[in-house]
Amino acid sequence: MEAGHPLWPATHKSPVYGGEQGGYRTVLLKGEPRVHNCMSDDQAAEASDDPAEADDATETEEAAAEASEDAEESDATTGLQDGDFARVAYTIRTAEEDGRVVDTTDPDVAEESAIDHEDHDFEPRTISLGAGHVFPPVEDAFEGAEPGDEGTVEIPPGEAFGEFETDEVRTVSADKLQDDDKYPGAQVTIDGEQGHVEAIIGGRARVDFNHPLAGEELEYEYEILDAVEDTEEQAASMLGMYLQETPDVRIETEEEEEETTIPADDDDEEPETEVETVEKDVLYIEASPQMAMNQQWMFSKQQIAQDMMGKLGLDRVVVEEVIDGGGMGGLGGMMGGMGGMGAGGGDVEEALEDADIDAEELAEELE
Predict the structure, then answer these.
(1) Is 334 exposed, middle or buried (0-12, 13-18, 19+ CB in 10 A)?
(2) Does residue 282 contact residue 320 with C-beta atoms inside 8 Å?
(3) Neighbour count for residue 114 (Cβ, 10 Å)
(4) Cα–Cα distances in angstroms (integers) from residue 366 to residues 144, 335, 348, 349, 362, in the given order
(5) 64: helix, coil or strand?
(6) Over the stretch 229-264, which tens digit does the pLDDT of each residue have?
(7) Within 10 Å of residue 67's Cβ, how many Cβ atoms?
(8) Which of 26, 307, 315, 318 could join 280 via S-S bond, C-beta 3.0 to 4.6 A?
(9) In whole angstroms, what is the distance from residue 262 CA to residue 215 CA?
(10) What is the tens place of the pLDDT at every residue in 86-113?
């Protein structure tokens, strides 16, 4: 779980009632601020007799209303917004008295909870708001937040990993399980669905296809460390979310020549073609051997690339495959030797004699 969830946005402010400001009182009416005149009857009578003072009072009232609206708009647009990237430290637990740790970026918490793995780096994650990297209630908490803000968000099952569905617990033939998976608790894939074995009785197995955290309410404790502005770091974080690994990336600005067609002024004239030099921002991804076997990458690389270009303002994505020497070095010599034999470079019968193999017996076996 990557990224890959406080109870209200950090910009939430409680309304203030009854505050006297220059003869006017701000109150909340149906969720919107209104300014009411608090002049006495004598003051009102005097104002009605003096048109200039009445106009001044109206202008003051309008100015106060505009200032209130400006303040609300300012609060709504400060801090992190949709599409921004932020580096976040978090720990997710089940909402119980002694909540079980589900995921964390803190190596000490991971060790204490016995979820530390050698092949997993427990470190802060970079997430993009609005990209589905975190649960919806956490998105709401992060919007408008600033680096240094921290809190805890409660996430109901319906906005986490779904409610527990009893229909998703089904009985299947035990023959559909691998021999090594025929025990309670085994993680299995049957007909394309992932689940875990609850019990095996005779030739039947009861398998729960719900998510392991289905029906669980979660607590998402977080701290926003800083905003991420570097585009290469943003690109790497997006790949990390998609692939559960972070390949090496770089962004280069390249110049290319493009042809532009200029419409003719006269219908009888042919349009002219103009060549201009333009700059293109290109993201280079160094594909690792693990990426070649990653199913998410294999089936969705086009969609992933399009998503990254749209969010990061890139013009092109290039995937570089690097093959190091060694490993299969003997394969070329073996194929070369076979090719030489088949192309007249050697006598097959002589080779069989040298290997003490009877050619006729070999032919009979092949038939």
Answers:
(1) exposed
(2) no
(3) 7
(4) 75, 22, 16, 16, 6
(5) helix
(6) 999 999 998 888 888 888 899 999 999 888 888 887
(7) 13
(8) 315
(9) 62
(10) 999 999 999 988 889 999 999 999 999 8
Which amino acid does the sequence have at 191? D
SS3 253: strand
The reply to whether 147 and 172 lie within a common domain is no
Q: What is the DSSP string of 122-156?
A: ---EEEETTTTSS-HHHHHHHTT--TT-EEEEEE-
The helix or strand, by DSSP H or E, that contains position 338, with its residue range, turns out to be helix 329-342
d(CA 65, CA 224): 34
Query: Which residue has tokens 């299969």?
Result: 328
DSSP 174: G
Alpha helical stretches, state H, the chain: 41-49, 51-77, 107-112, 136-142, 231-243, 289-292, 295-312, 329-342, 348-354, 359-366
Residue 294 is encoded by which pair of tokens?
A: 């990653």
Same domain, 40 and 151: no
Give backbone dihedrals phi and psi of 320, rounded to 5 degrees, phi first: -100, 125
Whether residue 8 lies inside any domain: the answer is: no
User: At 234, is the secondary structure helix, strand, or coil?
Assistant: helix
Domain end position, chosen among 27, 55, 77: 77
What pLDDT, on a 0 to 100 scale, did the predictor assign at position 89? Answer: 96
State the virtual CA torsion across 242, 245, 248, 250 in degrees, nearest 10. 20
Examine residue 331 and state whether it is found in any structural domain, yes or no. Answer: no
Cα distances from 228 to residues 1, 6, 289, in angstroms, run 21, 21, 28
Q: Is 183 part of a structural domain of the chain?
A: yes
Place of tokens 């200032």: 67
